[in-house]
Amino acid sequence: MTDSSPLPIDPIAEARRQWLVHGWDSAADGMAAFSSVMRAHQLMYSRVDSVLKPMGLSYARLEMLRLLSFSRDGTLPMASASARLQVHPTSVTNVVDRLEKDGLVRREAHPTDGRATLIVITDSGYTLVEQATQVLNEQVFESPGIPAEDLRSMTAILARFRRASGDFIDPPVRPEPF
After folding, report:
1. Helices (H), the chain
2. What ranges do the domains of the chain cover?
3. In this predicted model, what pLDDT tens digit does every residue of 57-99 receive, in sequence order?
4. When you count CB atoms within 10 A of the terminal residue's CB, does the N or C end of the chain come out lower?
5. pLDDT band at 154, cuts 50/70/90?
6. 17 vs 23: CA distance, rounded Å
């Protein structure tokens, strides 16, 4: 949530100063970085939410629809969606329940794995995800309020952190096609 007027000081810079005053010098920069990322997340999420909410979507619902729309046939097993979105299977179930209730996806039995359930995006889901993506691109992603060079640097720094934290591994180099 953002306030209508900016604070007179940067509270994270003040917290860092207090860390230093209390002798936590070795932790001050880490605390400030983590706090900055968490606050930036709040600010970014607020912008995204303000665009998606009028369309009846949350970012989690948009991610699911976008993931399905990117798949070859608009279909993914629930377990694959959970892995690709990096969320707990229960979260996928909750999102799919809401999307299904709104007619944006449907569940189908997996044709070869009796234990698996497929999530299938509907025509309404395709239409909505295309509209939402266009509006989100125009109103948020194309002008995020951070210069392009800084965005690339920030993304690279966060990717290195995520990789080092075990979030992903570098994919093998794929050979060029003949």
Report:
1. 11-21, 25-52, 59-70, 78-85, 89-101, 123-136, 148-164
2. 8-55, 56-134
3. 999 999 999 999 999 999 999 999 999 999 999 999 999 999 9
4. C
5. very high
6. 10
* Cα pseudo-dihedral 122, 123, 129, 131, rounded to 10: -160
From residue 87, alpha-carbon distances to 63, 96, 128, 145 in Å are 11, 13, 22, 28
CA 171 to chain centre: 20
For 66, residues 6+ apart whose C-beta sits below 8 A from its C-beta are 129, 133
**pTM recorded for the entire structure:** 0.85
| Geometric angle at alpha carbon 67, from 118 and 141, rounded to 5° | 160
Are the beta carbons of 104 and 124 closer than 8 angstroms?
A: yes
State the first-to-last Cα distance of the chain, in angstroms, to the nearest integer. 52
Query: 56-134 sits in which CATH class?
Result: mainly alpha
